[in-house]
């Protein structure tokens, strides 16, 4: 039950400006609407600056709810409505209030706008609470289901179990979260609704379960196994790209490396130099390419001792075209094609883990995006004992990330350059290797 004090407190808190207050009429008639003055008090004056027109006694029938268009209103909304019967009905029922603002003379109307009424505010607040209770039930159901399903997980191989460690730890932690903890999870995008967050947890659990029980599987199998019955295979289709991205962030591996063979996308990785896998053998010379699928199913290694990570394809094609450069310097050049995708990170780590690379030369554009890409390249090398070198615009070499970052931040204040502008030649590239 709403009291007059509740209503006036709501209006004062949300609609009045500094030093303004409501002034109730001394006599209240039996009319359905009342006019409440808005006055502004200063040290010397008390001036009327507006009027709030609102329902004095709500004209609601039992169990009446606001119309659909009112459900989208917010406390901050300032609506311009026609002076018609519908507006009057909303006003009489208490769903909205009418705010009239005066000019300096306190008489001439400056503007008229309609605001959310306290009754509508309470209705929407209760509806939100009901929705949260429903979401809490959904989340608790997920936690109960996840606890039972995770007990049944046994991996097909120890290697797969190791690859899924990050995911299984995340899922295990989720069993102890509160609903507010779910809302605050930094790995999940801030603009996701609670319902979508719960749905993403179901996807992660479904993926972990099928990855543990099958060496390889199709995208459609993830939902079909988790939700048996018609439509289960399409359960996660609407959020496919987003959910796969979250999976890769949490697990540290692309989905293909965890057994999924048909994500519907083929991502190429362009490179030049020697590279060997179970089903392929590339020699230094022209530009080659492997894909996200081949990287996930093969194990590549190289005889190169210097790994170049470059942002742009133009650099890759120019360096690979230099006669004998790759062979004589024992170099492998990998183009990351802009911001690093998870498959590029996985490929780089695969090379560092299985090869004899002792130094990595990182080369990106000299702008804000290039600095971010350089940071992503650097992060992909963490955990490996190799020398790092960054190519500066003046062809100098820095071997410390903090120094390179500081150098670039200073440089970006007055200039921006692309890699191609400071490409140099074979002599420069050899000097960087030998630096």
Could you characterize the architecture of this molecule?
The relative contact order is 0.06. The protein is built from 16 helices and 16 strands. The model has no long low-confidence stretch (mean pLDDT 87). The longest helix has 34 residues, at 118-151. The strands form four sheets. It has a seven-stranded mixed sheet, with helices on both faces. The chain has a five-stranded antiparallel sheet with strand order 1-2-3-4-5, sandwiched between helices. The chain has helices spanning 4-15, 85-93, 118-151, 158-163, 165-174, 179-183, 194-213, 219-226, 240-251, 292-297, 313-321, 325-329, 342-354, 368-380, 401-411, 426-434, and strands spanning 20-23, 33-41, 46-55, 96-102, 109-116, 217-218, 260-262, 268-272, 275-276, 281-282, 288-291, 306-310, 331-335, 359-363, 387-391, 397-398. By secondary structure, the chain is α/β, with parallel strands linked by helices. Helix 3 (118-151) packs parallel to helix 7 and helix 5 packs across helix 7. The protein is elongated and about 100 Å long.
SSE topology:
Blueprint: H1 4-15, E1 20-23, E2 33-41, E3 46-55, H2 85-93, E4 96-102, E5 109-116, H3 118-151, H4 158-163, H5 165-174, H6 179-183, H7 194-213, E6 217-218, H8 219-226, H9 240-251, E7 260-262, E8 268-272, E9 275-276, E10 281-282, E11 288-291, H10 292-297, E12 306-310, H11 313-321, H12 325-329, E13 331-335, H13 342-354, E14 359-363, H14 368-380, E15 387-391, E16 397-398, H15 401-411, H16 426-434
Parallel strand pairs: 6-7, 12-13, 12-14, 14-15
Antiparallel strand pairs: 1-2, 2-3, 3-4, 4-5, 8-11, 8-13, 9-10, 15-16
Helix pairs in contact: 3-7, 5-7, 7-8, 14-15
